[in-house]
Every structure is written in structure tokens, then in C-alpha cells.
Design goal:
single chain, 283 residues, alpha+beta, five-stranded antiparallel beta sheet, 9 helices, 10 strands, 35% helix, rod-shaped
Amino acid sequence: MTEPAAEKPSAGALLKAARERQGLHIAALAAAIKVAPRKLDALEGDRWSELPDAAFTRALAQSVCRTLKIDPRPVLDLLPQPILVALEPGDGGLKEPFQGRPGRDDPGLAGSAVRPLVLAAVALMVAALVVYFLPPGLWPSGEPAPVAASAPAVAASAPLEAASAASAASAAAATVDTAASQPTGETVFSTPPPEPAGSPAEVAAAGLVQLRTTEASWVDVRDANGQVLLSRTVLPGESVGLDGALPIRLVIGNAAATQLGFRGQPVDLAARTRDNVARVELP
């Protein structure tokens, strides 16, 4: 009478026996391979349905065998194989045209995205034109109008005739508003003498310091106390007289087109000029 063959151990039983031979607790083994103890217990109990899938089960078994330093092949032979999904070829072959996702090339989407940008550009252009054609009298004295900072490109693209007209209007408005915006000690003659001055001695403005320009020139004048006597652009043909505590310091931006007098005597700017900017201290 033959004896029945011994039942072959399962994969979980092989892993559990190898762990117990090394005297390793299941929690310690789980910590070593960084897995939850319940998953390791399901693997040793052959409860594969409690694990995510066959691929995870085989990977977990390999990690346990590597940690216990045993041959993983007998264990993996007893584990379920992962299900391989075959990819079915398309009906049209490699030359079949690609079908994109619906709505990807919808022109309405592109139009709705571009429309706000166009409206913003138009609004910026209109605002720049409004700022460009505002007369300088609306801006505080000594502060340049923000035309160059807001839209230089729009201003450059305006017609030449409109730019010339705006420049003429700005010059006229600045001349009219000059008397109301001058610092203390400045005397302004809005109407220049009919004949051009041949030398600084011909400047007729009253004051300790006399200025006259044949071209637009930015001038900054301060007295000994640091008080600003003048800080603006002097228009062509304009005569300005200034009084203040000595010494008076001047910075003249267009020295070649500016005549300076002190107590009725002409002051030579050539020796005090560099790059057409003169720095003078009187007396």
C-alpha cells in the first residue's frame, strides 16, 4: 500500500518558513522592505485578492526573497502571472491620418483668446494718444508729461503734421502758464524782445541773474539756502530774471543756446561747459 505524496508548499508558506528560520518578526520584515504588515501577512497567507494585482504580488515576493537572501524562483513559480493585454493594431495602418481631439482646432476658442488682447491693445493706443495731445499746462510744473514713458511707439507712429501741431500748442500753453508756476525769485518775460540779442549784455530781464535762450534749454537754479529758483525748460527767446541768496548755482542743459548775465555783466559759459552742459556758481 503506497503512501500519499506530500502536499507541495505554497508560495506564502515558503516565504513564512524562510522568515521564521531567521527568527525575524513579520513587523520587522515589513519595516525593512517598507511595506504595510497587513500586505506582507496577506502574501504569506496566499490571500492574493487582498493585494492590488499580480504584478504587485510578484514584486513584493521578490523584495522579501532579496531581504531574506533566498532564491526567489521557487516562490515566483507558485505565484499568479500578470495578465498581459495585447494591443490591437488599427484598421488603417501607419498611413492612416491622425484624428485629433474634438474641439482642438475650433477657431472659436482661438478667437475668444485673442479678442481680449486686441481690445487691450486698442485701449492702450487710445490712452497714449490722449496723453500725447494733452497740453503741458495740465501737468504740474517741473514734472515732465508722461508721454515718453506711457507709449513712445504710439507717439512715434503719429503723422508728422499732428506732431508739429501738438508741439506748437504745447509751446504756446507752456508760455502762457509760465508766470503762474515759477518758483520764488523768478521774473519771466513771456514776450521776447523783437530783435535777437547779440550778447548776454543785451538781456533785459530784471534780477541779480539774467537768462535768455535762443533755443529750448533746461535750466536748474538754486541759491545758497538750497531753494529752487528755477527748474524747467526755458523756451526760445524767453528772458528770465532771478534773485536769491549768494552763491547761486546753475546747471544749464543747452549752454550753446543760452546767454547768462550776472549783475548786468555777461558771464562766459564756454569755460564752464562740457558736452553742452554748463555748471556755474555765482559769484
